[in-house]
Amino acid sequence: MKTTHITLGLLTAALFIVGCDKPADQTNAQQMDKVAQDTKVAAQDMKDYTYAEKTEFIAKMRTESAEIHADLDRLTARIDKASDKAKADAQPKLQALRDQVAKLDAQIDVAKDATESTWNDVKSGFKKGYNDVKDGFQQARQWVSDKIAP
Prior knowledge:
Elements: H1 2-20, H2 28-45, H3 54-80, H4 84-112, H5 119-147
């Protein structure tokens, strides 16, 4: 469990760093491929929690949610330093991300109320939402890297 937390925490940090910094020797396509591969590895590393492990799953998802909120705050801060036009262009993208994060947070609440018979659906819903949020962050970071100078 602790290893999974550390792995996902490091992956989140790596996604943020890769999305914000553009090494001179990597193209955007190479960066996107690396992030997609890292995200796929993280999704495979996610333990398949049983209903008996529901409390552990919810705690882990709250930790993931907190990291996602911190990433969103960092991305927002970076956009806030941009020009007025870039800020205006970024607002719909940020709002879409916020909406995805809110849905993910709602999934945590659904997981708390899950029964044994609904557990697998709830878990699948959360994992899908988590992957959607990660994809949304990747797209937003790519946009920021393309439109806003570091």
